[in-house]
Amino acid sequence: MTIATRAPAAFRRFHRLRRTPALRSLVREARLDPAAWVLPVFVDARLAEPTPIASLPGHSRWPVSRVVELAERAAAARIGGLLLFGLPDEKDDGGAAADPLGPVPSALRAIRRAVPGIALIADVCLCEYTTHGHCGVLSRDGGIDNDATLPLLCAAATSYAEAGADLVAPSDMMDGRVGAIRAALDVAGHTETAILSYAAKFASAFYGPFREAADCAPQFGDRTAYQMDPPNAREALAEIATDLAEGADMIMVKPAGPYLDVIAAARARLDVPVAAYQVSGEYAALHAAAERGWIDLERAAVESLVGITRAGADVICTYFALEAAAWLGR
């Protein structure tokens, strides 16, 4: 007696395209490219030599006289751009940010002459320049005077554009600053200077190492009254839409890792470049875990960059830029 048998149900063999490194590379969906990365750079007017930043392993504050060396390294690694932050000789109420002889304009001019092919982005904020460490002008009640801050941001953005910035990147989170900066740039004849807005910048616990690096920790209170509340994704999209309506050419989500959903939502809705900032605390946490032997730094860092790319970021600002470019180049 013959017993009929049924062929096993067909199933998809996903393993076929994972079998070798060549096959995995061939069908890879999210691809990392150093040309889409931006390296943060700290320029310190008080220094004569690069000074390591303890909480950001591998990074230093750079004097204007030496910052071209870092720019040349970045260009050789095919990194797409630099994001410049400045530490002035002396802090004041915020006006020092616009000094044409300050650290950022001076660095922009030097890098533009020596490394003309790299994109230069100047962060626009007052926190590094104010005695109190907040991102805007103080009001009489001790809060932040949003509208009084706008002219200082405009002056700084114009100064950076005149010094050669391709993009100015307001990170202060004052309402209306994108429109004010766009108008100021246009009046000054810098119609081609683009604006990369930190449109969705959250009041995050991951900024600690940056505040050491930029010497900009608030001397009182915190920034929760003007940076975004972490639970609010819909509000983030509203902030992004507002900045685009005011004239932003690109938008930024910051931090990247904890806000991949916001990156993905922005990418799904927008036809402009979406940037993400993998911030200092994300970088430092991976380094700290690797130093203790808990993770493989290279694998974890690359995986984090893949995740940000997969979420939809076209541009990633990351402290891993030089390291990761070297890893990918092997």
Taken as a percent bin, the fraction of beta residues is: 15-25%
Helix content: 25-40%
The gross shape turns out to be: globular
* N-to-C span: 63 Å
Instruction: Identify the CATH architecture of the domain at 32-251.
Output: Alpha-Beta Barrel
Given the helix and strand composition, which structural class is it? alpha/beta
Give the neighbour order of strands across the main sheet. Answer: 1-4-5-8-9-10-11-12
Uncertain regions: pLDDT < 50 for 5+ in a row? none
Rg, alpha carbons: 22 Å
Task: Describe the protein's architecture and organization.
By secondary structure, the chain is of the alpha/beta class. The protein has a domain at 32-251: TIM Barrel (Alpha-Beta Barrel), CATH 3.20.20. 37% of the residues lie in helices and 17% in strands. The protein contains 11 helices and 12 strands. The chain has helices at residues 21-26, 67-76, 103-114, 146-163, 177-187, 208-213, 233-246, 260-269, 280-291, 297-311, 321-328; strands at residues 37-44, 51-52, 60-62, 81-87, 119-124, 137-138, 144-145, 167-170, 194-201, 250-254, 274-278, 315-318. The strands form 2 sheets. It has an 8-stranded parallel β-barrel with strand order 1-4-5-8-9-10-11-12, surrounded by 8 helices. A two-stranded antiparallel ribbon has the order 6-7. The model has no long low-confidence stretch (mean pLDDT 94).
